[in-house]
Design goal:
The complex is a heterodimer.
Chain A: E1 4-5, E2 10-15, E3 18-23, H1 25-31, E4 34-38, E5 45-46, E6 51-57, E7 61-65, E8 70-75, H2 78-81, H3 85-88, E9 97-101, E10 111-112, H4 113-123
Antiparallel strand pairs in A: 1-2, 1-10, 2-3, 3-9, 4-6, 5-8, 6-7, 8-9
Chain B: H1 10-13, H2 15-20, H3 30-35, E1 39-43, E2 46-51, H4 55-65, E3 67-71, E4 76-82, H5 89-93, E5 109-115, E6 121-130, E7 133-138, H6 143-153, E8 158-163, E9 165-171, H7 175-180, E10 194-199, E11 202-207, E12 216-222, H8 223-234, E13 239-241, H9 244-253, H10 280-285, H11 291-300, E14 304-311, E15 322-324, E16 330-340, E17 345-353, E18 362-367, E19 370-377
Parallel strand pairs in B: 3-13
Antiparallel strand pairs in B: 1-2, 3-9, 4-7, 4-8, 5-6, 6-7, 9-12, 10-11, 11-12, 14-17, 14-19, 15-16, 15-18, 16-17, 18-19
Helix pairs in contact in B: 4-9
Classes of the chains: A alpha+beta, B alpha+beta.
Chain lengths: 124, 389
């Protein structure tokens, strides 16, 4: 399936029952050089909007919210040793965590690629 | 992502802020920053570059390796002249600061602080002696207050002439090689010396100092010539434009205080570990604001002290992070914290209870509710490489 996006600059890619979550190219660009990432552990229950992960650049710390409700099945362990993956490959290798969804209907509230691009344009 | 926590970057992302912000001032290099692709942010009432294309990490490392150009024109510059030509502005200025100013030689620079009656720091500054006058450089956010304070306290004794000039810093191990190509005499200065020199017929005040821990210069130049000098320096292969983001990480690695964060009106030079800038003569004379309190702290010891703190994990501890002892009791707070690009590790400084301020003391930092091990560390984190001697 194609990616979905939140207004908080996260992307969600659904493969079967598993949603992969990352931050967008725009988000990593705004953050600058990422130097630390903390991802959630497998088994953690999250509700839409909860703090789920942490991403820090040289200057700033930022929370990554759970874009959907469900259970974390895997955090991207590679980001601990190589946080710069978030800058280098935000859409692929720099993913944050994978989760199952407790309410797949929440997906419909998210933006598709075209809507997200339009949203970015509005931000200027 | 919680964009509100992106302190430096927040303006570009929250449009509603734009409408409520006061009008920001521009330095003479403002249009050059835009041309260079800088990301601009509000800082101390100015629209300033936080980073350029290289990014904070790249700009930081470039400055440590080669040379970085910083626009610090937002800082305050002023000339202090005695009313009576037989007087010495440096001696008069000692009424307001604990530093040894009247002992300065012609063309030498000293770091000091304006103190309040409680011994707290109103601002920190650089003072350079030329004859019986002083040239002062103070922090941007404090400059109006500082200048009003100095003018009022020294009324009838000295005149303060605020300077509307640009200030360009060129910092890094190759700064001297680069500047020598443009300004005769710059390379003859040693660390903490200054001279009026000439660039293309313009009078420039060149000071061999800075705030990165590296060798380097600050060049005070007339507003209308500033962009031409910056463009000329940036055209040199060794030089890149550097924003406020890297300026902050460079000074933190160098163990230097950021006013309003690591020092303020409630911290004294004794607590801030700045007593190296308060010589014995001034302690004995005890004739500067807050002298009794500072002297008492010198003899009885301080309750808290500014120290370097090295987190043991990878997570940076930001300003405001609580410091606890190993028993879990609060003993202090982080006042500057982030990532040190030259070390490839998180670094911080802050205030801890005096009994926990020994280098090597194990402490805990409470980051997002979880205790993280850290160690009280000697400052600076990166050796300073000034051109002394």
């Amino acid at each position: 399936m194609s990616k979905k996006f939140t207004k908080d600059h996260e992307w969600i890619s659904l493969d079967g029952d598993i949603a992969t979550v990352g931050i967008t190219a725009y988000a990593q660009e705004q953050l600058g050089d990422v130097v630390f990432v903390e991802v959630p552990e497998a088994g953690r229950q999250v509700s839409q909007g909860d703090d789920a992960a942490v991403v820090e650049s040289v200057k700033a710390a930022s929370e990554v919210y759970a874009p959907l409700s469900g259970e974390v099945v895997e955090g991207n362990g590679a980001l601990e040793a190589n946080p710069e993956l978030v800058n280098q490959s935000p859409d692929e290798d720099g993913w944050f965590f994978k989760m199952t969804l407790s309410d797949a209907g929440q997906l419909d509230e998210l933006m598709d690629e075209a809507a997200y691009q339009a949203f970015l344009k509005e931000l200027g | 992502m919680e964009w509100t926590s992106l302190c430096f970057w927040s303006r570009a992302l929250t449009q509603e802020n734009l409408a409520t912000e006061p009008v920001l001032q521009h330095t003479p290099l403002h249009s050059l920053h835009i041309e260079q692709g800088a990301k601009m942010v509000p800082f101390a009432g100015y629209d300033m570059p936080v980073q350029y294309g290289l990014g904070v990490l790249g700009e930081h490392l470039h400055t440590r390796e080669k040379a970085g150009l910083f626009d610090v024109s937002h800082m305050g510059q002023a000339r202090l002249m005695p009313v009576n030509p037989k007087d010495d502005a440096a001696a008069l200025f000692e009424q307001l600061v604990p530093g040894g100013i009247q002992t300065l030689k012609h063309g030498h620079i000293r770091y000091s602080q304006l103190t309040n009656e409680q011994g707290g720091i109103r601002d920190d500054l650089m003072a350079t002696r030329f004859g019986n006058e002083l040239w002062l450089v103070v922090n941007a956010a404090c400059k109006q207050d500082d200048f009003a304070h100095i003018a009022a306290k020294l009324e009838g004794q000295a005149t303060l002439e605020v300077q509307d000039r640009a200030l360009i810093a060129l910092q890094g191990p190759q700064a001297v090689t680069v500047l020598a190509r443009f300004i005769d005499g710059a390379a003859d200065l040693r660390f903490m010396q200054a001279a009026w020199l000439s660039w293309q017929g313009a009078d420039v005040l060149v000071s061999r100092c800075g705030y990165t821990g590296e060798d380097g210069f600050e060049i005070s130049i007339a507003n209308q010539q500033a962009e031409a000098l910056a463009v000329a320096l940036l055209a040199e292969a060794e030089v890149e434009a550097i924003g406020l983001g890297a300026r902050d990480s460079l000074r933190l690695e160098a163990g230097l205080c950021l006013y309003g964060h690591d020092i303020d009106g409630s911290t004294t030079p004794a607590e801030a570990d700045l007593l190296w800038s308060v010589p014995k003569r001034r302690r004995e004379e005890a004739n500067f604001p807050g002298a009794a309190i500072i002297n008492q702290q010198i003899s009885d010891g301080v309750g808290r002290r500014r120290v370097g703190i090295q987190p043991q994990g990878r997570a940076p501890a930001r300003e405001g992070t609580e410091v606890q002892n190993s028993a879990g009791q609060p003993i202090g707070i982080i006042t500057s914290g982030g990532f040190g690009p030259s070390l490839g590790a998180p670094i911080a400084m802050g205030y801890v209870a005096a009994q926990a301020s020994q280098i090597g003391t194990e402490v805990q930092l409470i980051v997002r509710g979880k205790p993280m091990p850290a160690i009280v560390t000697a400052l600076p984190f990166v050796p300073q490489r000034y051109a002394k001697g």
